[in-house]
Design goal:
Strand content: under 5%
Shape: globular
Order of helices and strands: HHHHHEEHH
Structural class: mainly alpha
Helix content: 55-70%
Radius of gyration: 19 Å
Number of domains: 1
Largest sheet: 2 strands, antiparallel
Number of helices: 7
Number of strands: 2
Strand order of the largest sheet: 1-2
């Protein structure tokens, strides 16, 4: 039997994160941990240790899909892990992230007012007013939280859908963070390749 490590229980963190954000949207900022750490491991370590061991989301999909049998366990479609889809989804994801940052900038500059709404799949508005009843933070801080929580929740729902339809960790085949860290690791590996000396 495989020995359990402390990081094998990080799937609990994914549940806690969304639960906290549901009651107080400012907790959405904690999701930046899952954005920054993978990049740091890739940049300084040249590896995907975070994706392989520390990603609570992929662990959650494993628990739900494999352990609790919530997945049909069908093979992940080849197009889903193809370069054009993975990088296309990455570009789309980064565009949505940039749009969220721009909205935060507008609120910060006073050009726009705070929008207390969570958007699922970037279009379905779900009022989340109860999650920000006490206003302890500047509007731009709350605006980022609403946008970031929308991004995290939408990507989690997409992951759950493909988990049910295909293998539990099908999301990992086109995860934007996975694609970015893979690109960084490849770039670092190329930099380490020995150059042929000219005779």
């Amino acid at each position: 039997m495989k020995k359990k490590h402390w990081y094998d229980y990080l799937w609990i963190w994914s549940i806690v994160y969304f639960a906290l954000g549901f009651f107080n949207i400012l907790f959405a900022w904690l999701g930046l941990i899952d954005f920054v750490l993978p990049l740091l491991f890739a940049i300084f370590g040249g590896n995907k240790f975070f994706c392989n061991h520390l990603c609570g989301r992929s662990q959650l999909f494993t628990v739900l899909g494999k352990n609790l049998k919530c997945s049909r366990n069908k093979p992940t479609p080849k197009w889903m892990s193809s370069k054009w889809f993975r990088y296309g989804f990455l570009i789309f994801f980064l565009t949505m992230f940039a749009s969220m940052l721009y909205q935060t900038y507008l609120v910060f500059g006073g050009a726009s007012s705070l929008r207390e709404v969570v958007k699922l799949f970037w279009s379905i508005k779900v009022p989340w007013g109860w999650a920000y009843t006490v206003r302890p933070a500047p509007d731009w801080v709350a605006q980022f939280a609403f946008g970031f929580y929308s991004l995290m929740l939408t990507s989690a729902l997409i992951g759950l859908i493909v988990m049910v339809l295909f293998k539990p960790r099908s999301w990992c085949s086109f995860c934007p963070m996975g694609s970015m860290t893979q690109l960084i690791c490849r770039f670092k590996q190329r930099g380490k390749e020995p150059k042929n000396s000219e005779e």
